Hints:
Mean pLDDT: 80
CATH architecture of the largest domain: Orthogonal Bundle
Strand order of the largest sheet: 4-3-2-1-5
CATH class of the largest domain: Mainly Alpha
Low-confidence stretches: 1-7, 10-15, 286-298
Radius of gyration: 38 Å
Strand content: 15-25%
Amino acid sequence: MILSFLQENPQDQKGKLDVNPTSIIEKLDTWLDGFIKALPNIVVGILVFIAVLFIARWLGRIIKRLLKKKGRQNFGEILGSFTKWTVILVGLMLSLTIISPNLSPADLIAGLGVSSVAIGFAFKDILQNWLAGILILTRQPFEVGDQIIVNGFEGSVEEVQTRATRIRTYDGQIVVIPNSEIYTNAVKVITANELIRSQYDVGLGYDQDREKAMRILRETIEGIEGVDKSKDIDVLPWDQADNWLTIRVRWWTKSDRPTVVKTFSKVILETQNAMDKANIDLPFPTQVRIHNAHDTRR
């Protein structure tokens, strides 16, 4: 059947199936000769790239170890990885120029520039978070273990990664916040200083001895464990409400949350007990309810 078809269409088949085995063999020989000539360059290029891989890994580890000894492990992880991949990229470009001498470094850089623009648009958020992470680790507005407030989240910093920062809230939950949000928003670092001030308002009845009450408040707070003795304790008349005079007390403690919370609880409890023993009235808010006469008849 195939023979009959070829016989019926000799001209068409000559135009379509004009295959010269000699030209194919010559083409293959040309490719093989080119490969054999380029083989030394290919071997050298591969060996150079393998050597660069070992050097890049070695440099990355050295940087991580040095910064870890200085207490900046997270920054060491990022800088070590950045150095490793930069060296690998340079080594890859060098290997390609060895394998293909006609390919100049300028051509590679130009191609890399075009690719970088495309990659930048595709991975804009990732790159933004990565750069923000480097800036955070470089400038160190806070460190691992610090207590911070950012975007309404409050807790202890557990880890600063290349993309995000991990915070453990006081109730044990993990919050992962992108580094770009941390870098572009206000961050309150609670433990930035060794000491922090707390305050508490006490309502004192207008018929009470104000001087005596303020003296008792001061003496009570001075004797509470956790209150820093090197700082002054403030006991100040602060506001006049309808039924009491507001006395604001201020004291200093260590800035870590356990100390702040425990000391605050002691201040509330012990000042209340001291006032009770001295028979000083701490009035509660008073509310007067007036019932409508029409409603009471129903």
